[in-house]
Protein backbone atom coordinates (compact mmCIF):
# COMPACT_ATOMS: atom_id res chain seq x y z
CA UNK A 1 0.00 0.00 0.00
CA UNK A 2 1.39 3.42 -0.92
CA UNK A 3 1.38 6.42 1.38
CA UNK A 4 -1.28 9.08 0.85
CA UNK A 5 0.05 11.72 -1.51
CA UNK A 6 0.49 15.23 -0.15
CA UNK A 7 -2.16 17.71 -1.24
CA UNK A 8 -3.02 21.20 -0.06
CA UNK A 9 -5.99 23.33 -1.06
CA UNK A 10 -6.53 26.93 -0.01
CA UNK A 11 -10.10 28.08 0.58
CA UNK A 12 -9.64 31.83 0.33
CA UNK A 13 -13.23 32.54 1.39
CA UNK A 14 -12.75 30.77 4.71
CA UNK A 15 -9.07 31.59 5.08
CA UNK A 16 -8.32 27.89 5.47
CA UNK A 17 -5.51 25.81 4.00
CA UNK A 18 -6.45 22.11 4.11
CA UNK A 19 -3.57 19.63 4.03
CA UNK A 20 -3.81 15.90 3.26
CA UNK A 21 -1.32 13.03 3.29
CA UNK A 22 2.28 12.77 4.42
CA UNK A 23 4.39 15.79 5.24
CA UNK A 24 7.64 14.12 4.19
CA UNK A 25 10.64 16.23 3.16
CA UNK A 26 9.43 17.25 -0.33
CA UNK A 27 5.92 17.94 0.99
CA UNK A 28 7.31 20.00 3.87
CA UNK A 29 9.19 22.18 1.39
CA UNK A 30 6.03 22.59 -0.69
CA UNK A 31 3.98 23.43 2.43
CA UNK A 32 6.61 25.96 3.54
CA UNK A 33 6.45 27.63 0.13
CA UNK A 34 2.64 27.68 0.10
CA UNK A 35 2.48 29.08 3.63
CA UNK A 36 5.09 31.68 2.69
CA UNK A 37 2.95 32.87 -0.22
CA UNK A 38 -0.28 32.92 1.76
CA UNK A 39 1.16 34.53 4.91
CA UNK A 40 3.30 37.10 3.10
CA UNK A 41 0.58 39.74 3.16
CA UNK A 42 -1.98 38.09 5.45
CA UNK A 43 -2.87 40.13 8.55
CA UNK A 44 -5.81 38.13 9.88
CA UNK A 45 -6.43 34.60 11.13
CA UNK A 46 -5.51 31.84 8.73
CA UNK A 47 -6.51 28.25 9.48
CA UNK A 48 -4.31 25.30 8.64
CA UNK A 49 -6.33 22.08 8.77
CA UNK A 50 -4.04 19.16 9.61
CA UNK A 51 -6.79 16.63 10.31
CA UNK A 52 -5.91 14.43 7.31
CA UNK A 53 -2.13 14.48 7.79
CA UNK A 54 -0.77 10.94 8.12
CA UNK A 55 2.92 11.67 8.80
CA UNK A 56 4.54 14.79 10.26
CA UNK A 57 8.26 14.67 11.18
CA UNK A 58 10.19 17.38 13.02
CA UNK A 59 11.02 19.50 9.91
CA UNK A 60 7.27 19.87 9.28
CA UNK A 61 6.71 20.89 12.91
CA UNK A 62 9.45 23.50 12.44
CA UNK A 63 7.71 24.91 9.36
CA UNK A 64 4.45 25.18 11.32
CA UNK A 65 6.10 26.92 14.29
CA UNK A 66 8.00 29.35 12.06
CA UNK A 67 4.91 30.17 9.98
CA UNK A 68 2.82 30.67 13.12
CA UNK A 69 5.39 33.11 14.55
CA UNK A 70 5.75 34.98 11.22
CA UNK A 71 2.02 35.55 10.86
CA UNK A 72 1.75 36.73 14.48
CA UNK A 73 4.49 39.29 13.81
CA UNK A 74 2.37 40.54 10.87
CA UNK A 75 -0.63 41.02 13.16
CA UNK A 76 -2.44 37.85 12.14
CA UNK A 77 -2.56 34.33 13.48
CA UNK A 78 -1.98 30.88 12.05
CA UNK A 79 -4.54 28.63 13.69
CA UNK A 80 -3.37 25.04 13.52
CA UNK A 81 -6.46 22.84 13.35
CA UNK A 82 -6.00 19.28 14.60
CA UNK A 83 -9.07 17.34 15.72
CA UNK A 84 -8.84 15.14 18.80
CA UNK A 85 -7.19 11.78 18.19
CA UNK A 86 -5.38 12.74 14.99
CA UNK A 87 -1.65 12.33 14.46
CA UNK A 88 -1.35 16.10 14.16
CA UNK A 89 -3.14 16.71 17.47
CA UNK A 90 -0.86 14.31 19.32
CA UNK A 91 2.32 15.77 17.81
CA UNK A 92 1.30 19.41 18.29
CA UNK A 93 0.43 18.68 21.93
CA UNK A 94 3.79 16.97 22.54
CA UNK A 95 5.65 19.87 20.87
CA UNK A 96 3.67 22.51 22.77
CA UNK A 97 2.34 24.29 19.67
CA UNK A 98 -0.95 26.13 20.06
CA UNK A 99 -3.74 24.41 18.14
CA UNK A 100 -7.51 24.12 18.00
CA UNK A 101 -9.89 21.27 17.21
CA UNK A 102 -11.89 23.45 14.79
CA UNK A 103 -11.64 26.68 12.82
CA UNK A 104 -14.45 29.18 12.53
CA UNK A 105 -16.95 26.77 14.04
CA UNK A 106 -16.26 24.11 11.40
CA UNK A 107 -14.42 20.92 12.22
CA UNK A 108 -12.20 19.25 9.67
From TrEMBL:
Pfam families: STAS. Gene3D superfamilies: STAS domain. GO terms for molecular function: anti-sigma factor antagonist activity. InterPro entries: STAS_dom, STAS_dom_sf. Residues 4-108 form the STAS domain. This is STAS domain-containing protein.
